[in-house]
Design brief:
The protein has 255 residues and is an all-alpha fold. The protein contains 9 helices and no strands. Helix 4 (95-113) crosses helix 7 (172-188).
């Protein structure tokens, strides 16, 4: 195996590691918190977000770690793994920022304007990640990311009903503010992350332009050997200026 192949293999392994490390670690933390709550018989709901009360401020950070029961926790586990892995695969350089901005923004908005009750669970983060990945797929011309966004819609398209006050025991505010945060963060980072997909025909067009430019510069050098390279390049750039064509319409005199 050549050094280049070894480097590629190492890079791929590193990327896979970073793709799954944080989502898996975060989910393990959620399960450890729930198991500890049961083992030590100590309810943690009071660490949730309680809107407009000082006692609820800490919940902006801790509420996503706390779940009502194992059913609640399991319903967030799978989407956190899927969406979190997608986030760290496509946006590894700033995935942590996206994750924690969504988490903190959702918690803060819930504390400011939600119903006076304890709001717990990571579902707000789930909605934020789903909205972020979907919105990113819309604003970026990247086929791989667009395909992942379609998978998100297929798997979690029913999440849209969670932003409506359908069930009184459900924190639809967390869902709504999480989705809003995800969309806003997606537009904020719209110029970062995966680049546009480049097709083969685009590369061929670029090569044709480059070859034409080189031939033109070579002709200039042959016709005027005393001309330096910078002058040739300047003339070549001038050649690329827009060509203006004036059309004249000849009147029809047969009438």
């Amino acid at each position: 195996m050549t050094d280049a192949s070894k480097n590629i293999e190492t890079t791929q392994k590193t990327r896979i590691f970073h793709t799954f490390f944080f989502p898996v670690t975060f989910v393990i933390l959620l399960w450890l918190v729930k198991i500890s709550e049961i083992v030590f018989h100590y309810p943690l709901y009071n660490f949730g977000v309680y809107p407009r009360q000082l006692k609820g401020v800490i919940g902006i950070l801790t509420a996503p770690l706390i779940h009502a029961d194992f059913g609640h926790l399991f319903s967030n586990t799978v989407p956190l793994l899927v969406l979190g892995s997608g986030l760290f695969y496509y946006y590894r350089s700033f995935a942590y920022r996206v994750f924690f901005i969504i988490l903190l923004a959702t918690g803060f908005w819930v504390w400011v304007s939600a119903r006076p009750s304890y709001h717990i669970g990571a579902s707000g983060v789930v909605y934020g990640l789903a909205a972020f990945m979907f919105a990113s797929g819309l604003v970026k011309k990247n086929m791989s990311l667009a395909a992942f966004s379609l998978v998100v819609v297929f798997l979690y398209g029913n999440l849209v009903w969670g932003v409506l006050p359908v069930l009184p025991q459900m924190s639809w505010e967390s869902h709504l503010f999480g989705a809003v945060a995800g969309v806003l963060v997606a537009f904020y980072y719209r110029k970062q992350g995966p680049s546009d997909t480049t097709y083969q025909w685009q590369l061929e067009d670029d090569n044709e332009v480059t070859e034409e430019t080189l031939i033109y510069e070579e002709v200039l050098m042959k016709n005027n050997p005393t001309q330096n390279q910078s002058e040739v390049e300047n003339e070549s750039e001038n050649k690329k200026e827009t060509l203006i064509i004036n059309y004249t319409v000849k009147p029809n005199n047969r009438n």
